[in-house]
Amino acid sequence: MTEGSVLIVEDAVVIAEHLKMLVELQGHKVIGVVDNGEEAIELAIEHRPDLILMDIKLLGELDGIQTTRRIYERLKGETSIVYVTAYGDKKTVRQARDSGALALFTKPVRRHALDWILQWYFQGVKDLDSKPSSLQAWFFRDV
Asked: By CB count within 10 A, which of 57, 69, 100, 113 is most buried?
């Protein structure tokens, strides 16, 4: 498996650290963990991660959807973003889809679920039926 680079954008410290640990256990490099959109944009531009795990509720002026749009405006396809969030209502899912993200996964994301997400992204797992039953997901675009 090729090591990928991941940026974690999450406002809850405990969740952010848990995601970081799980990503690293899968053999990927975490290039940063931030809790606000402004820093996420800076790190994304500086490091150009392969994947960004983005929460929707963030600290600061920008939410995750606004942050995603700004990153995509600047990086034009050089990175991919998936949401990992507590919000799965119709309005949020529609806004997430319209932001250009690949997918939205709802919390809580346990180890086997995050392992599947990373394999789906980095290894191109196409069998969506193999997704853990505990993982609620909306897919907007192919990897």
From this structure: 113
CA dihedral (64, 70, 74, 75) positive or negative: positive
Residue 100 scores a pLDDT above 70:
yes
Amino acid type, 140: F
Structure tokens at 40: 């996420």
The answer to whether 66 and 21 are in contact (CB under 8 A) is no
DSSP three-state, residue 104: strand
Rounded CA gap, 131 and 117, in Å? 8
What CA–CA distance (Å, rounded) separates 55 from 64? Answer: 6
Helix axes 64-75, 90-98, angle to 10 degrees: 10
The β-bridge relationship of strands 51-54 and 80-85 is: parallel
Please report where in the chains the tokens 């969506």 appear, as a residue: 128
pLDDT digits (tens, 9 = 90+) for 44-65: 999 999 999 999 999 999 999 9
Structure token pair of residue 106: 């709802």
- In the chain the domains, ranked by start, together with CATH numbers, are 5-139 (3.40.50.2300)
Q: What separation in angstroms does the CA of 8 have from each of 44, 86, 90?
A: 10, 15, 24
